[in-house]
Structure formats: structure tokens, C-alpha cells
Amino acid sequence: MERYYFDHNATTPVAPPVVDAMLPHLRAHFGNASSIHQEGQAAKQALERARRQVAAFLGCAQKEIVFTSGGTEADNLAVLGVEGHVVSSTIEHPAVLAALKNRGHFTLVAPDRSGVVSPDAVRSAMRPDTALVSIMHANNELGVVQEIAGFAEIAHAAGALFHSDGVQACGKIAIDLTGVDLYSISGHKLNAPKGVGALFVREGVALSPRQFGGRHESGRRAGTESVPLAVALGEACAMPREDYSALRDRLEEGILRSVSDTTLNSAGAPRVPNTTNIRFDGIEGEAMVIALDLRGFAVSSGAACSSGAVEPSHVLMAIGLTREQAKSSIRFSLGLGNTVEQIDRLIEAVTAAAAHLRRMAPAYA
Ligand SMILES: Cc1ncc(COP(=O)(O)O)c(C=O)c1O
């Protein structure tokens, strides 16, 4: 059966030019970028070229890019590398939230019902000892985009630094790092492989490292760099990007029109153009994910299986949905390879699956 992939916020397929770019660095050019011989220097050149590509993509200087093993490590490095009180939000990814819980000394601000974090809420959470404000650029589940420049101003006015988790914004919307001190990105959300990411660290920002060893990455991140993965991230950053808003709108309108009792989560909020999150009254999200999977479609539900039980998403709970509403939400996220025909098939499949699941749910009248 043909497969249709609509879960690009979970991970993306690796783009063919990205594979082509990294292969020579797996095969012939295996050198260690810290070695002074020719093999080492070739690796070093490839690493620095990749760093330039990432920097050009983010509009920053090459030396402001620290390669990491992914978005989680970039977020951890930012959030754990600054001492003092942190202001963040309840809709952050666990890469930020769990790191904060581990370090302590933080205040979380709740968003409004559409998922937007208000500057006033962040301002009121600031304390004299606040050293960092960390607010994500785009949310992974809702796609809601925050006005990060405003949060940077609030942080700076209080003498604090500003970090943003840009993992779900990169490649989807224009990135402007004016005022931003720290910014995380992840390769596998950008058509590069898993296991690589980067943290933008504005020149002059003091950040204590999280791992210790050699003086790789200007002393910010010890460990021999993976040149093939860095090259892949650089190539992915240099790739032209498509705009999926027309396809996303077609999908959204199609589902809301064809399936009764559906609601768009975060309607009216600014969103990245590839993401839609829809609530289906009376349907268990997990059941919908399985029903669609059996029909050939990969999507994601607003719930995660933790310690054996299906728990509603903390993001959907944070925007004020009930547990049932959160558990009946489905995220569709578009990307490389999706077409109008696929969208139309997906609308048909969702319509059929919703009718089937509701027939089987006696409580749904
Ligand atoms: C918003 C956000 N931040 C951080 C991460 C973690 O990135 P990685 O999977 O590269 O560790 C993800 C991945 O789902 C994400 O969506």
C-alpha cells in the first residue's frame, strides 16, 4: 500500500541532496577536524563550510554557531548554561521543560487560549535575579508562532538573556535573530538526519558548557565533531524551502467542511504554514492515528504514551482544553513530498475514519 506522510513535525525525510552531500564524508573524507594533517584539514574545511551555511541561514556570524547532537542538546545547553532565575512558558518542548525542572529556579507563564504567550505575562514573571527568558519560536503541536523580538526586549530591559527554541520554526518561516542571544535548531526537522543540531550563541554571551573534554566548538561543546552530520545540516540549511500554506489550508478547510463537530485548535493565532491541529469530538485521537495508519497515512495525536497510560498533551492542556478535548486532537504536519492529490486523499480518509470511529462509539450521538 502506498504511504502518505503527514507527520513532518515529528521528523522529516532526509532530502536527496543532503544525502549526496554527506556521503563523501562517510566514505573518503573521514579525517578528524582537529588533526593538522591533510585529512584533518579537509574535514575542518568541510565543517567550517557547513558552519557558514548554517550561519547564512540564520543570518549570524559563523563563529556564533555551535554544532550539537540535536535540538534537545541545544535547548539543554542554553537553559542549563546560564545561572539565575529563568522565565519560560508552559507550552515549551520537554527539552526545555525537563531541563528547567532538573535545574530548578524558574517561573512558567501560561499562554492564552489560542497558544500565544503574552509579553505582559512574561514581564510580570520577571524577577530581579532573572538571568534568562526562554520562549519557543514555533510550537511543535499547534504550530503557533510567538513574537520573539518582543520577549528579547523584555529580557534585555531586565538585564537577562533571551533564548528561543527555533526547532519548529526553522525552514518554515523567516528567521530574524535581532535581539536573540541563543537559538536552537534541529537537523531532522529540516530534512537532515537525526542526531545533529545547532545552538546560535550571540558573540560575547557567557554560557557554561554542559560537557567537558577537548576544546571543540570554541570550548562550548566538547567532543569530536561529526563532520558528515554537520555537512548534512549545512546542506539542509542551504536548500530552497517550499511554502505549504496553500496545501495546509486546503486540508484544514476540507476536514472542517466534511467532518461534523470538528474544531481548529489555535484558530486565529499566527501559525507556521505547515501545521494544523484539529479536534474531533467523540473520537479518541489514538484510535484516529491507528485508523489512518491502516489506511496508509501517518499523522500524530495530541497525546503521548507515558508509563503505559495515554496522557493528554501538556500543550493542549495549557491552552485550556479538557482532557477529553486534548485526547481527541490530531496534528497534521506537512512537508517535502506532500501534494494536492495526497491532501485530497487524506481528507477522504479522515472523513471515512471519523464516521467509522463515531459509529463504534455509543456515547457519541
Ligand atoms: C520544539 C522542539 N524542541 C526541541 C525538540 C527536540 O529536538 P531533537 O529531536 O533534535 O532532540 C523538538 C523535537 O520534537 C521540538 O519539536
What does this structure look like?
The structure is a single chain. By secondary structure, the chain is an alpha/beta fold. It has two domains: 223 residues, Aspartate Aminotransferase, domain 2, CATH 3.40.640; 119 residues, Alpha-Beta Complex (Aspartate Aminotransferase, domain 1), CATH 3.90.1150. 38% of the residues lie in helices and 17% in strands. The strands form four sheets. Strands 2-8-7-6-5-3-4 form a seven-stranded mixed sheet, sandwiched between helices. Strands 9-10-15-12 form a four-stranded antiparallel sheet. Helix 6 links the parallel strand 5 and strand 6. The longest helix is centred in the N-terminal third of the chain and has 21 residues. The radius of gyration is 21 Å and the shape is globular. The model has no long low-confidence stretch (mean pLDDT 96). The structure holds pyridoxal-5'-phosphate. The site of pyridoxal-5'-phosphate has 14 residues, from helix 3.
